[in-house]
Design goal:
Layout: E1 7-11, H1 24-30, E2 35-38, H2 50-63, E3 66-71, H3 90-108, E4 113-115, H4 127-147, E5 151-155, H5 170-184, E6 189-194, H6 195-200, H7 205-212, E7 216-221, H8 237-246, E8 252-255
Parallel strand pairs: 1-2, 1-8, 2-3, 3-4, 4-5, 5-6, 6-7, 7-8
Helix pairs in contact: 1-2, 3-4, 4-5
Length: 279
């Protein structure tokens, strides 16, 4: 078991970023991968021109890779923002404007997982007000995901790097998953288990996997410390992925790590080429 038994996709918003966006799908394919995921690529626009959407769709199709995950609009990411859906005012409106745009784009490429980042706490705003707004928007997002046969992912980040983000434990993320499912009755909200973020929070990863694998819709990995490739830090990622498999998880594992100073194509030495294509 281990790395060779997983279905990996490459996150093109953190890897291959030395290349223009439209060249990244082909670069991932050249490295041997057949699946990719993306944060919302147009950080300044929840509703880009159709020509921009079409160009990215064409680049993905031309590369022969499958888009398996897409974030909803999340503000400046990378950058100071950690989502928009709980931010009162203009940012929440941008998130709502993006919901159907993102869902339709995902559907056009057969993508069946949409990730909705919760958003930072805003100084001077009652957290309960933000949480109520978040639930409203997550219900809308869950219904849009259901319309295209997709799941809605809820992600926890980590406190040291995202101190104003309220979901920094696995139980906090699962709590939102349960609230959304209770509100919609759809059951399509799932936990995004990012092993790097959880490790940065000091959580007991084997216990998290044992308790929450059944509610997990996607997994992302990076080593810790450093958020580099597997083997650059001290996390037992191979063992953790083995445990996830034994717990019944059969979904994608997103490679959401930093390549460091080298070209991204050189950051996959830990995974034999013959095991990079999804099976």
């Amino acid at each position: 078991m281990g790395f060779t038994d997983q279905r990996f996709n490459v996150n093109l918003s953190i890897l291959f970023t030395e290349l223009p966006l439209l060249e990244r799908p082909a670069a991932a394919a050249a490295a041997g991968f057949t699946a990719v995921e993306l944060w919302w690529p147009w950080v300044d626009s929840p509703t880009p021109e159709q020509s921009e959407l079409d160009a990215l769709k064409q680049a993905i199709e031309d590369a022969g890779v499958q888009l398996t995950g897409l974030n909803f609009y999340a503000g400046q990411l990378p950058g100071p923002d950690r989502g928009a859906l709980s931010i009162p005012g203009a940012e929440s409106a941008r998130f709502r404007a993006n919901i159907d745009v993102a869902a339709d784009f995902a559907e056009s490429l057969g993508c069946r997982a949409l990730n909705a980042l919760y958003g930072n706490r805003v100084e001077g705003v009652d957290p309960a007000e933000q949480d109520a707004l978040a639930l409203e928007n997550l219900v809308l997002a869950a219904r849009a995901a259901d319309r295209i046969g997709a799941i809605l992912l809820i992600e926890t980040l980590n406190g040291p790097e995202s101190p104003r983000y309220p979901l920094v434990t696995a139980p906090a993320g699962i709590g939102i998953v349960d609230k959304v499912n209770d509100a919609t009755g759809l059951g399509n909200a799932k936990f995004l288990m990012d092993l790097y973020h959880l490790s940065m929070n000091g959580e007991d990863l084997p216990s998290v996997i044992e308790e929450y694998a059944a509610k997990t819709g996607h997994v992302q990995i990076a080593d810790n410390p450093g958020r580099g490739a597997p083997g650059t830090g001290t996390l037992p990622l191979e063992e953790l992925l083995d445990q996830l498999t034994k717990a019944g998880y059969t979904g994608w594992v997103g490679l959401e790590y930093k390549a460091g100073d080298r070209p991204s194509a050189e950051a996959f030495g830990w995974l034999p080429v013959e095991h990079r294509a999804a099976r």
